[in-house]
Request: fold
Amino acid sequence: MLAALAGEAHARPPFWLMRQAGRYLPEYRELRAKAGSFLDLCYNPDFAVEVTLQPLRRYGMDAAILFSDILVVPHALGQPLAYLEGEGPKLDPVRNVEDLKRLSRDRFHETLAPVYETVRRLSTAIPEQTTLIGFAGAPWTIACYMVEGAGSKEYAHVKRWAYGDPVGFGQLIDLIVEVTADYLCRQIEAGAETVQLFDSWAGVLPVGQFRRWVIEPTRRIVALVKAKHPDTPIIGFPRGAGHAYEDYVADTGVDAVGLDTTVSPVWASRTLQPRVPVQGNLDPIMLAVGGKTMAEAAWDILEALTPRPFVFNLGHGVIQSTPPEHVAELARLLRAWPNRG
Reply:
């Protein structure tokens, strides 16, 4: 994994899956029930380590990604957060400069101390050849949740603030940039060997706003992290960026880029891979379907991207209804590559 991120091509590329630890696994659901709440699961190092290790035991991925959630960052800033069954995360919205006064960095690292402890334990608990990935949400995506107060279809509140009061909204983005860079550095110091920035809602912005609220904040985080940890690779995942992937790769400074499901592997091999290693991008629904349909889609991606530095992954996270045996099937297929048998 680390060699691929450093620019080495492999006949059999390394692989891991976004959301590889989660609700599709029965052992996860059992532990989740014991934890009491999702946040309790994230903030309990015993549970979080176990959840992170569960898919490794089953499938032997080349990387383990810290089990946590991107919204621990606003929670650590003092924004109330709850996960409601069947509804997802709910936060008390922050929608103007006055609301920013409710946020504080005073207990940020104290709140996130269990996450750092989880990383420390994982650094020795995972197999030596397995790469440990830390992560955080990118500023635009975190801001979307903080301002909307939940997931959204239109992102009306956050766009109104960003477009109508860019100076005020910029204060929120500045805060997120600073604490996120510090958060990632702490994960690296605890043992993370690479980190990923998830910008799940990058694709909802028009081109000019994409540069202002996705590319520039990401560039600043990369610079801050690299100032302390120049040798730690940073993977960016600007989901939905389309052709703006080119500018993202050129201008953020990320070491590798994750491709969402909509990106053509042939286009990525021609346009992005000459600049950076790429990661992706099997449709998670293909994984849920399994069988020949999944295999042929995976082979197409492998054929297009393995000649250059590449990490196999999904175009977004594993969905809850995915049969665990389909993940095992995919793992067998990837290990057998370039044999299609």
User: Anything to note?
Assistant: The first helix runs from residue 2 to 5.
